[in-house]
Amino acid sequence: MTIEGRAEPQAAARQSTLRTSNLGLVLRTVCAAPDPVSRADIAVSTGMTRSTASRLVDDLVSAGLVEEAERTAGPVRGRPATPLLPGRTAAALGLQVDAGRLAARVVDLGGRVVAERLVDGDWVGSDPGTTLDQVGGLAAVVLADVPEEMRLVGAGLALPGIVDAARGVLLRAPNLGWHDVRPADVLAAHLPAGLDAVLGNEADLAARTVAESAPGRPGAHRDFLYVSGQIGVGGAVVLDGRVMRGNAGWAGEVGHVCVDPDGPPCRCGSTGCLEQYAGRHALLAAAGLPRDASPDLLLDTAAAGDPRARAALDVARRALAVALASVLNVLDIPTVVLGGHLGRLATDLRPGLEDDLATRVLSARWRRPRIEAAGPDSAPAATGAALHALGDVLADPVGWLD
Amino acid sequence: MTIEGRAEPQAAARQSTLRTSNLGLVLRTVCAAPDPVSRADIAVSTGMTRSTASRLVDDLVSAGLVEEAERTAGPVRGRPATPLLPGRTAAALGLQVDAGRLAARVVDLGGRVVAERLVDGDWVGSDPGTTLDQVGGLAAVVLADVPEEMRLVGAGLALPGIVDAARGVLLRAPNLGWHDVRPADVLAAHLPAGLDAVLGNEADLAARTVAESAPGRPGAHRDFLYVSGQIGVGGAVVLDGRVMRGNAGWAGEVGHVCVDPDGPPCRCGSTGCLEQYAGRHALLAAAGLPRDASPDLLLDTAAAGDPRARAALDVARRALAVALASVLNVLDIPTVVLGGHLGRLATDLRPGLEDDLATRVLSARWRRPRIEAAGPDSAPAATGAALHALGDVLADPVGWLD
């Protein structure tokens, strides 16, 4: 594994703006395609000449950002076409800290998980330095597993709170009990020199894995509200495949939508927030189960006729209906994707939730809101953090050429 | 007054795309400037040559979209510059129907109200045909007041509900009790042939008057949540000066954010919606005042020590805090602009509301949300409907040249 520093991308961009922009276009075309494309396909879809497209592909292949697969049977006449795929040797490190799980993952440009380590536990009220030291240790283990020929193009760290990404500061993560934490100071001891982990919000980054099935490849949904069921509840608004940042990058905090102003106090300082009903700890406590119980145990207990488990699920569903209807009324988005433990409860929650939304959303008569479950990934925000770093390469690959 | 049909704008655009785009740029530069600009100013700010800018200005002056004011004292040497202003002879008709007021207004390209008629009343549960006939009558009266030399470039109709603008249908306006109404069928009898009123949501259009102080001129705020206090409560999300449409154009329904799921039933079919506490009818009923009482009477009654009036204001304030905090947590917007009766109550509501938001908004410690009052305009959505029509001219003026 080598760690890449980007050599003067601004200067390169000035030297040849058109080439820069066309290189990005070719790379994004290869990455966005659901099936391998040929140089000729790229020329057609980008409007470049065949020779320009071919030259740019060659540059990307040399840099390992695109790779050539085995030639398949081509047209009846002429040379068989060489199928092009996203490069397997370019990858990024994604880290995730939440109150119930630490994760470190390396994801390549094709979206494959190259190496990963996950640790479950309870980091509510934990010491930031100790916890970041743990995740840094995981990162070091994972990086040691990465093959020698792989180039690491960036890193990201997903945190369950509001972050100032530009300054590299976690401002506040209520469920961790952290505020004003600068992770780079601790992570530097574990990461290779020159590799800085860009901070992002856990739900924003997890939502990227729904919007993108692989780096630069459109996923199952492009306009949706993502609700991340963690120990608390996070969220992200995704419009046209892009996570809505808001004015300061703090948009999407659906877990702190108020469901009942007279409800229980929340760690954030408010009362009756959605996560006090639908967060994992709140839900399991209401069901009388230990707070490290799995969503499956909760479902099984309810299915076995336990009234507390059933009531906890119903309370969570009603709270979700109230909060989500409010958000859908304001945002006019047709789809909600449930992730984390809420995704694993989706089959139980969906029918009643969709009915409740049909009553509470003003426009439901014309377009009934739909509830979907995110995929079963156990650390989507770690993947999202890697997608974010890889997205920078897709946006402007010129700094990564040899 | 003449009614303008746009002659083949697509064909014109094809003939000279650059000229089209530069004409729009020059017109928008004149309209955006807070003070009159000269041909030389336009050349500098657009990067065009002086002669190109001057020729395009001449075309816009001929068409009445730009006008030349008296020459003022220019530089020490050389000809005095001719100050340029948005044309006074180009104007649009804005209509507004809400459950408590009908309005018709003609607004010119400089943002001046040329003529208007407002009628207050009670149109809750009214017959759509009869009411639209009334507003059509107002439109006819207003248009008769417009000077002969004025060119009418478009029209808009603001409605307090969710609309399908492309199909020209009001889908649902809970407080009017209307659904599936096609206003054009009734309005056609009153409006000049060829003048179709484009439908828009009342709060979306009122919010435009905050984002734009005149057609194309930036207003006091560019990123804000607009809350329109009417008989119910409407809303609009404005990002970078543009009203957020949402997936189907129905975004912004903050009046139907749920404040308390066990609260009173709302006309929309849900329960505990914000407008059940902060809408004008709800507020006045809670205060024991007649439902046509003014916001000033409510304030005076509360100031005189009447406990019901004070309690009604406090309930509205707490409901606004719950609903607005939820929206700000999801959207990460720093400013709320209160319009309609809520704007007139802003001085009373603001201190407590800002304190409540500081507790309930997750990011408030880093950026405390602010409450502002919209201006005193009594029919901002009518102006907004005209701004919308004038905005089409600013986007592409070529169809309006002689």
Structural overview:
The structure is a homodimer of 402-residue chains. By secondary structure, chain A is of the alpha/beta class. Chain A folds into three domains: 2-86, Orthogonal Bundle (Arc Repressor Mutant, subunit A); 90-208 and 380-400, Nucleotidyltransferase, domain 5 (2-Layer Sandwich), CATH 3.30.420; 219-373, 2-Layer Sandwich (Nucleotidyltransferase, domain 5). The first copy, chain A, has 14 helices and 18 strands. In chain A, the strands form five sheets. In chain A, strands 1, 4, 5, 6, 7 and 11 form a six-stranded mixed beta sheet that branches. In chain A, strands 16-15-14-17-18 form a five-stranded mixed beta sheet, sandwiched between helices. In chain A, a hairpin with a 2-residue loop joins β4 and β5. In chain A, α7 packs across α14. Chain A is globular, with a radius of gyration of 23 Å. Chain A starts with a strand and ends in a 7-residue tail after the last helix. In chain A, 52% of the residues are buried. Mean pLDDT of chain A is 92; it is low at 5-15.
